[in-house]
Amino acid sequence: MKNSNKQYLYSVLRQAWQELRALGDKAGKGLMRTPLPRILILCIGLALLITLVPLILTLFVIFMLVKLFLVVVTMSGRSREQTATEFKQKQWSYKEAEDAQFVRVEQISYRQDER
Q1: Distance (Å, rounded) from C-alpha 93 to C-alpha 70?
Q2: Where are the transmembrane segments (predicted)?
Q3: C-alpha distances in angstroms, 17 versus 10, 12, 21, 80?
Q4: In tens digits, what is the pLDDT along the chain, a chain of 115 residues?
Q5: By C-alpha distance, which of 22, 50, 27 is closest to 39?
Q6: pTM of the full predicted structure?
Q7: Running DSSP on this structure, what letter comes out for residue 85?
Q8: Could you tell me the CA-to-CA distances from 55 to 33, 48, 84 in Å, in that order?
Q9: In this structure, what DSSP letter does residue 34 have?
């Protein structure tokens, strides 16, 4: 069993290597036919792409984290102010509590709307 699995893996890897070599040969022949200025432009473009894309993604993530942090800070500040104003509005004195009356409800009857 182990021997057949090793042989299968070996044949798959050998075939993949042959395919990669064939692609490399085609790319090499294509580059030999391409003029040097075009190859230079392609190399510069590829270098810019490789260096700028990670930089752009990193800056995007940093700015989004800063924005999220600022939103959290401002929301917590607003909620503190809001709770403080609500607390001031809800404060009541003992005099008001003494004037309160309790009402007992025995039965509630609803009138039917006549249409």
Answers
A1: 39
A2: 39-70
A3: 11, 9, 6, 65
A4: 567 888 999 999 999 999 999 999 999 998 899 898 998 999 999 999 999 999 999 999 999 999 999 998 888 777 777 776 766 666 555 555 555 566 666 777 777 766 5
A5: 27
A6: 0.41
A7: H
A8: 34, 11, 44
A9: S
Extract the tokens encoding 65: 């984290």
Q: Which two tokens stand for residue 31?
A: 């580059």
Encoded amino acid at 16, one letter: A
Residues 6 or more apart whose Cβ sits within 8 Å of residue 39: 31
What tokens does 81 get?
């102010």
Residue position matching structure tokens 């009138």: 111
Amino acid in the structure at residue 74: T
Note the helical H segments in the chain. 2-33, 36-90, 94-99
